[in-house]
Amino acid sequence: MDFDLSRKIPIGIQSFEDLRRKNFLYVDKTLYAFKLANLGKVYFLSRPRRFGKSLFLSTLKAYFLGQKELFKGLYIEKAEEKRAEIEKTEAWIEYPVLYMDFNVGRYDEPHSLKSHLNIVLSQFEEIYGAREPEEEPAQRFAGIVQRAYEKTGKQVVILVDEYDKPLLQTMGVNEELNEHYRNTLKAFYSVIKTCDQYIRFAFLTGVTKFSKISIFSDLNNLKDISLSEMYAGICGITQSELEANFQPEIQVLADRQQLDYPQAVAALKQWYDGYLFHPAGEGMYNPYSLLNAFVKKEIKSYWFSTGTPTFLVNFLKEAHYYIPDLNENVELDEAGLQTYRAVPEDTLPILFQAGYLTIKGYNKFSKLYRLGFPNDEVRYGFLHNLIPAYTSIRADRTGVSVWQFYEQIEKGDVEGFMEKMKGIISGIPYDTVTEKDIALREQNYQTAVYLVFALMNQFVHTEVHCATGRADCVVEMKDKIYLFEFKVAANGSAEDAIKQIQEKGYADKYAGSGKKVIAIGSSFDEVKRTIKDWKTEQL
Which domains does the chain have, with CATH numbers? Predict the structure, then answer.
């Protein structure tokens, strides 16, 4: 047998009961479940997709159903017994649990959400009964909660997984339907407040927290723990959890990739670590990607298999957002991180909430969070998905095209490299930028260039500055260094770009490297929307 049944990796396992009964590996998160259950009442948690929210919700379900046998050897086993002793109550109390999962189904038709709610509510009504006057989902939900309490004599536990799935599926696709869904869900979730006396605990998860017609505006008892230091490690895997629970898997991966153990740990960290949900919290690994890397014994992109939502790309373009700023040059306050309005000008919060950006620093004086890509998987995956929006490169050709760029520059074929760059720039789609707005045209040009060089960094060290005082792009090879300066023709020629590299001494820092330094200046014709010319000079 070439596999170990005692080391089963739980990819796709979202049921805590299934995971425990079938002896899958489990990183103990029951401390968080115990804290939540006993320190508060109504919670909301935002985390990126595939980050373990469903499994954690299932853990809470098992706890509130009193399934003691599933928690053997875990933190909560002894903690629950001690709680009962201190509070002089029964341990492992079984509560009526209303579990709702919005991951199921599609929500692209006006009736889709109501149909889903009808199915869920009908299942609860089979257990707790129904009343004839109750027609709308909110009315039926309220009736179920009250009757569950009356029938069992115990307060109700409400668990909602991916509450925002109907909103995310219709956002940027059907705004009228999106608005209808908001109003439906707003009324539905208001039951959690109006039926407060019948509720023991409520926990809602999702990717985003919307603010426009706030779904939770009536829930003033809702505690958002998304940015709480106490719960920063609730989903995902910390460095210590990784090395404590997966040493055999790391070693197998290292052997397969011809790395030593520390190199394998470093590679995993570079690709999958880096998510921060509080400035003082620990960095978190994406559990989905990490577990896939162990199963497939290969470090590559797994989280991006479904791609970036189209509306996000469209929003970034429509807002003329300067893409290079996403690399640790974005700042938001706490309110900005936690809320989101479905408009192009407000794209950054959802990029954070969805896991494309994470906390990179915090200024206590300004109370501003600095954001950036968490790791290489997200950085390259996200930029890969942006390329077709800013260049003529097709989505299915991005990887090949970027590799060809690298091959040309690696062998010193500057002419071939620039001709290829000219080809993709010529295909930049027309947008709403006016003919007179040269600055935004230059920005689109710079973005296309930035994306190519940033993606090349997978294969060779590149610096993409797009700032004054330094060359626009630096590509550092084993034996040579390329300094690129790009200009819009209205602001200068290729000759001017070379002159700028020389006069500002961009090459000075590489003088002692022993490498050949090559300056490449280029100009962009904003009328014809293509590279006008370029000039190369060895410094």
Answer: 16-231 (3.40.50), 239-300 (no CATH), 306-376 (no CATH), 391-538 (3.40.1350)
